[in-house]
Amino acid sequence: MNWENIASKAGEKVVENVVENTLGINGNTVKTVKAVAETGAAVGAAASAATGLTVAATSGAGITSGLAAAGGVVGGGMAAAPAVLAAGPAYLGAKIMNETLFKEQSNLSEEENDARAAARTATNIGAVAGLAGAGAVTVAGGASGAAIMGTLAGIGGVVGGGAIAGTAIVAAAPVAAAAAIGYGIYKLFGGKGKDS
Q: Which of 119, 161, 168, 194 could form an SS bridge with 156, CB 3.0 to 4.6 Å?
């Protein structure tokens, strides 16, 4: 199984569990969110490949080196890597959702457009909160290399993987957070969908 497949599977699980099961969002919205998550996973996979975090480096030392290189982009080392890898997908995910699901349209009611405006703001906040969460969860067990690897391996175990799958899940989580928070605020503010 290559990195892109692991990232895609992890993204699908996050979307399925958070978006479908928790929020009960309709099928069309779920398809859009899944597409965003897959795009985000692909971006994370590309960034990981560029920094050396590949399936060829599946040893603990190889993964650690790849994470250190990815986190080194912002001077944060291994602890910052999942948040660094999540930044692109979080940005793209929020942007795609805001420009498709929550786009303002002149043919919609004022209440619907207001709900969409609130959702756009909430989606952006959700993406940023997801990035902060990605950074925090990475060092939840400690900031040493062994603790970070243990945390990521535990998270990856949810989908039957290890630390690489855990990194993919942590990198995809901000997209799911953006979707969940944006959609929740959309509904809270009276959003009803395209037919309103």
A: 161
What is d(CA 9, CA 7) in angstroms, rounded to the nearest whole number? 6
pLDDT band, residue 23 (cuts 50/70/90): very low
Question: CB of 56 within 8 A of CB of 62?
Answer: yes
Query: Are 123 and 97 spatial neighbours (Cβ–Cβ below 8 Å)?
Result: yes
182 and 169 Cβ atoms separated by less than 8 Å: no
User: CA angle, 182 as apex, 155 and 127 as ends, to 5°?
Assistant: 50
Indicate the residue type of 88. G
3-state secondary structure (DSSP) of residue 194: coil
Assess contact for 44 and 21: CB atoms under 8 A: no
How many whole angstroms separate alpha carbon 61 and alpha carbon 83? 20
Token pair of 90, please? 């979080």
pTM: predicted TM-score of the whole model, two decimal places: 0.69
Q: What single-letter amino acid sits at 21? A: N
